[in-house]
Design brief:
Blueprint: E1 2-8, H1 15-21, E2 30-36, H2 43-47, E3 53-56, H3 61-71, E4 76-79, E5 84-85, H4 90-99, E6 105-113, H5 118-133, E7 143-145, H6 146-151, H7 162-170, E8 177-186, H8 188-193, H9 195-210, H10 215-227
Parallel strand pairs: 1-2, 1-4, 2-3, 6-8
Antiparallel strand pairs: 4-7, 5-8, 6-7
Helix pairs in contact: 9-10
Length: 228
């Protein structure tokens, strides 16, 4: 079985369309687990009936995804953002790639759904950087064997950069499978405050993380940068 784990917080406007796109997978040895981090809107209600499990967890993507993993029955876990769309045949491609290799985890290439041309360049750079470094971001729909996820202790319970920390640990077991099929993620966070400002913010925060900055403080700076 494969388990799709979706962390959400106040996604009432997008969660129903996200889950409806996944309905054809249900019953084909795929389960969908939605993990709500304390939404104050109708996110959880909109999801009921469209997911196999809707559970609550403390806020924070790392904690939510770990909670989803604890509930999952699958031997492979796929962590999917609510605003990210899987390509056709994604689950079969992922399963085949895992079965035919000794690699224990991977991710998809990403495209950013936006009319802004510069975000095509951003996506290209994200995919290229991921191949060079062996590190993936949550936007790339990270998937991992359950045994390997448990071996590294799951996502570290940090406020930001949990995807960087997880994949840094996983690549010490095997390099990633880098699937060229593209997931499509929303460009809303780049469009809201401008792509250049958002790119520079993320570069600065990532550098600070690598230099040992406190993820809790980085999360505060991230939210300030988004809403300033």
């Amino acid at each position: 079985m494969l388990s799709i784990i979706i962390p959400v917080l106040n996604e009432e406007g997008t969660i129903e369309s996200c889950l409806r796109r996944l309905q054809t997978l249900r019953g084909n040895d795929v389960e969908i687990i939605l993990v709500d981090g304390g939404s104050t809107d109708g996110t959880a209600g909109s999801a009921r009936g469209l997911a196999d499990k809707v559970i609550d967890a403390p806020p924070g993507r790392a904690r939510q995804m770990n909670a989803g993993a604890l509930e999952a029955k699958g031997s492979i876990l796929l962590f999917l953002h609510a605003d990210t769309i899987l390509p056709v045949g994604a689950m079969q491609e992922m399963q085949t790639a895992i079965d035919r290799s000794r690699h224990v985890w991977g991710r998809f290439d990403v495209r950013i759904g936006s009319p802004l041309w510069i975000l095509s360049v951003v996506a290209f750079a994200m995919n290229l950087r991921s191949r060079w470094t062996g590190i993936a971001t949550g936007d790339q729909a990270i998937f991992v064997k359950r045994t390997a996820f448990d071996e590294v202790g799951g996502y570290p319970a940090i406020a930001l950069m949990e995807d960087i920390a997880l994949t840094s640990a996983l690549k010490r077991i095997t390099p990633p499978i880098c699937l060229r099929s593209k997931v499509t993620t929303s460009g809303r966070r780049w469009e809201k405050k401008g792509p250049i400002r958002t790119i520079l913010l993320m570069w600065r925060l990532r550098l600070a993380f690598y230099l040992g900055a406190d993820p809790k403080q980085l999360a505060i700076e991230y939210m300030y940068g988004r809403h300033r």
